[in-house]
Write a structure and sequence with these properties.
The complex is a heterodimer of chains A (344) and B (235). With 344 residues, chain A is of the alpha/beta class. Chain A is built from 13 helices and 14 strands. In chain B, helix 2 (51-66) packs across helix 5 (90-114), helix 8 packs antiparallel against helix 9 (187-216) and helix 9 runs antiparallel to helix 10. The longest helix of chain B has 39 residues, at 3-41. Classes of the chains: A alpha/beta (344), B mainly alpha (235). Chain B: The chain crosses the membrane at residues 20-41, 62-80, 86-106, 155-182, 188-208.
Chain lengths: 344, 235
């Protein structure tokens, strides 16, 4: 649905060049929620703003819903009619909501429809329908200043949906909100994604956002995407930083003669009670040092750190058993063994 | 001078002042608003970025603003004659007043429009709006409280300028104060004109502030009442 290839953005200011995006290849499938996470300054903002060409990429192409937007943009800094039409089919929500303070909530939602040249009657019908969808039907006549942050963002979302977009871009939409409001806004995005089949590309610096709504995620560092994939793909990738951040594990071995094993659950294997099977089969005592398990898309995924009695050499058989169950096993401190295994 | 002698003089002077200031304010707003917006749009990083045009407009505005009004008035005599057919009288005074006020108002508009959050501009661009849409739907409505304050400031400045317009026989309160109050030692009449000017300026300032505040506060309280209050304040 959204594809960028070789996307590069270089800012020039007073003779100095800053590379914000350095050849970004991003692929967002139709109907998924895709999260791009990174520290501030990693280029996330430039990336999302290049997708609807609010920012002109220095090089590379952006394709949204099969339309090459970079080709529509032309050379000049101003957006031509075709690009503006394409933009009207891409919704965007902002960190600071960007609602017009001089307009009521309803008039704010009607604004994109005014730009599209819809009649007054159609505009107000559509606006009220959208406000109902985001749960703010009773606030239509209020001004943004009278709303809470979460309500403002709901208005922002209703406004972004006014043009019946297939794609929604979310630029740190929850970063200015408290944790509870963040959850409700993310739940709303999730609902819209399911109900309307909306493809959502969101950028954030909060791992929780990715964890709670995203089907896929990408990690950005220094203008590059260093990891990307669906959540279970990331989990399956040995040494994935994103997986480690999404499912953090800690806990030290309680003694020298113990073996720490990290078990990654994803897909079918998560439904099997493997830990108790292991304990019964080999008659060993297993301690759980830490676990991070979540339900993503109806499947349990996550990681667990367990401790087995005895040294690594003594536990080759139980570890082999776990591997046979289709689990991904990492033994911290025995990376070489792991690499050999995954090379097979 | 008795009150019955002063009254018709003052009445005529009031009307002349209001007439001059009213028309020149109207022209200043019509001319200065687009000029001020253009100054923002053509600036570096603006929607219509054109640094050369920005420099030229900025220079013209600066020069026009730095000229003392009395010199501007004399310098523009030829231009005034070509428009009004005369260089004396109330109509003739409107021309230099308007020409002087346009750059003054334009700078105030520029400052007001620059205050508008760039995120709003971006939001409208993301919806597919063009530059004209941004001006109409964002820049002007969002800066309206400041624009109203700027208009108030311009009106007050124009009342001050209009006193000098008396030198081209335009009449008005300032002219009365000079001719009767100063040159004929009618101190009483002079103080009356000063009082009238003070009252007029206070009323305009109050009405302007009230209108700007009502608009600005919109939404801080409930309901669409500010719109109605604005109408009352203006009338």
């Amino acid at each position: 649905m959204i594809t960028t290839s070789g996307l590069t953005k270089v800012y020039r200011a007073r003779g100095r060049e800053v590379t914000a995006l350095d050849g970004v290849d991003l692929h967002v499938r139709e109907g998924e929620v895709y999260g791009v996470i990174g520290q501030s300054g990693a280029g996330k903002s430039s990336l999302i703003r290049c997708v609807n060409l609010l920012e002109r990429p220095t090089a590379g192409t952006v394709t949204v819903a099969g339309q090459d937007l970079t080709a529509l943009a032309g050379r000049g800094p101003r957006a031509g009619r075709e690009l503006r039409q394409a933009r009207s089919r891409i919704g965007m929500v902002f960190q600071h909501f960007n609602l017009l303070s001089s307009r009521t909530v309803q008039d704010n939602v009607e604004l994109p429809l005014e730009i599209l040249g819809k009649s007054g009657k159609e505009r107000s019908r559509k606006a009220l329908e959208l406000l109902d969808l985001v749960g703010l039907a009773d606030k239509a006549k209020s001004y943004p200043a009278q709303l809470s942050g979460g309500q403002k963002q709901r208005v922002g979302i209703a406004r972004a949906l006014a043009g019946d977009p297939k794609v929604l871009l979310s630029d740190e939409a929850t970063s200015a909100l408290d944790p509870e409001t963040t959850r409700s806004i993310l739940a709303l995005l999730r609902d819209l994604n399911r109900q309307l089949g909306l493809t959502v590309l969101l950028i954030t610096h909060e791992m929780d956002v990715v964890k709670s709504v995203c089907d896929s995620a990408a990690l950005m560092e220094n203008g590059r995407i260093v990891e990307s994939g669906t959540v279970s793909e990331l989990l399956a990738t040995p040494g994935s930083e994103l997986a480690a951040a999404l499912f953090p594990l800690d806990g030290e071995a309680s003694g020298d003669d113990r073996t720490v094993v990290d078990v990654t659950f994803q897909g079918e294997s998560a439904t099997q009670p493997v830990i108790s099977q292991l304990a019964r089969t080999y008659n060993i005592d297993i301690s759980i040092l830490g676990a991070a398990i979540d339900t993503v898309g109806g499947l349990q995924v996550g990681r667990m750190r367990i401790e087995l009695p005895g040294r690594y050499e003594d536990n080759v058989v139980p570890i082999g058993f776990l591997r046979e169950q289709g689990l991904q096993i990492d033994v911290p401190g025995h990376e070489s063994a792991l690499v050999k295994e995954s090379a097979k | 001078m008795t009150w019955s002698e002063m009254q018709p003089l003052l009445e005529q002077a009031c009307w002349d002042t209001l007439y001059m200031v009213g028309w020149s304010t109207l022209i200043a707003v019509v001319g200065g608003l687009p000029l001020g917006i253009l100054l923002v749009l053509t600036d570096r990083g603006g929607l219509l970025q054109n640094v050369a045009a920005n420099k030229v407009i900025g220079q013209i505005v600066n020069i026009a603003r730095s000229l003392p009004f009395i010199i501007l008035m004399v310098a523009l005599m030829g231009f005034t004659r070509s428009i009004t057919g005369t260089t004396i009288g109330v109509e003739a005074a409107i021309v230099p007043l308007a020409v002087g006020a346009i750059p003054f108002f334009a700078r105030l508009v520029e400052t007001a429009v620059r205050e508008v959050d760039h995120g709003l501009v971006e939001a409208v661009q993301a919806m597919g709006g063009n530059t004209w849409t941004v001006v109409r739907k964002v820049l002007v409505p969002e800066s309206l409280p400041s624009l109203i304050s700027s208009t108030t400031t311009t009106i007050v400045a124009l009342i001050g300028y209009s006193a000098m317009a008396g030198t081209v026989g335009a009449g008005g309160l300032g002219d009365i104060a000079i001719r009767y109050g100063y040159q004929r030692f009618e101190t009483q009449l002079m103080w009356i004109t000063v009082a009238i000017l003070a009252v007029v300026i206070s009323v305009i300032q109050f009405a302007g502030d009230y209108a700007a505040r009502s608009l600005h506060r919109r939404g801080a309280h409930s309901g669409p009442a500010p719109r109605l209050r604005l109408l009352k304040a203006a009338s």
